[in-house]
Amino acid sequence: LADGHVVAAPPRNRPETRIDVTGAWVLPGLLDLHAHFREPGGEASETLETGARAAARGGFTRVVTMPNTSPPMDDPERLARQIAASATLPVDLLPAVCCTRGRAGREPADLRALHACGARAFTDDGSMVADDTVMEQVMRLAVALDGVVMDHAVVPERAAGGVIRAGRLADQLGL
Q1: Alpha carbon of 139 to those of 21, 29, 102: distances in Å?
Q2: Who contacts 109 (Cβ-Cβ below 8 Å, separation ≥6)?
Q3: What is the 3-state secondary structure (H, E, C) of 89-142?
Q4: How far, in Å, CA of 44 to CA of 156, rounded?
Q5: pTM score, two decimals?
Q6: Comparing C-alpha atoms, which of 72, 55, 59, 53 is closest to residue 123?
Q7: 53-105 pLDDT, tens per residue?
Q8: What radius of gyration do the chain's Cα atoms show?
Q9: Regarding predicted confidence, which is higher, 77 or 166?
């Protein structure tokens, strides 16, 4: 410990040491499944470095970054550059990539090439893939790659002006 923070794990062969952590929270590093680091294209809001430093200060050791960047994270070369740039960050970066080209929802991105670069999660975060045929293709590809599809399941036409999904609770609340 240094200044109240864990800075390193003790060596495994070190004799037992007791540390009084009364009043403190001690837990494994946290995983953020949905982070927006905005790089590339939105560096004025957040970069890989500033996002990773903030995550580490909050107790996160792994962060899944969303692909709704500008340009979108749908290109293997762009993904490879991001992964290389993240090598020195204080948290493990797990980039989610677009499931469709340009996050446009019209055709699957090259999931095989993105997977080969290290992607394991596919999402058009912020946009729903409304075409069922395209989403089925994405899901079948993701299964074949042992990947995960993270869907932004909001149909804008149905959500417009809404505050809750129709159902018993909505009826009880008069919404």
Answers
A1: 46, 30, 17
A2: 74, 97, 98, 99, 100, 101, 122
A3: CCCEEEEEECCEHHHCCCCECCHHHHHHHCCCEECCCCCCCCCHHHHHHHHHHH
A4: 28
A5: 0.78
A6: 72
A7: 999 999 999 999 999 999 999 999 999 999 999 999 999 999 999 999 999 99
A8: 20
A9: 77
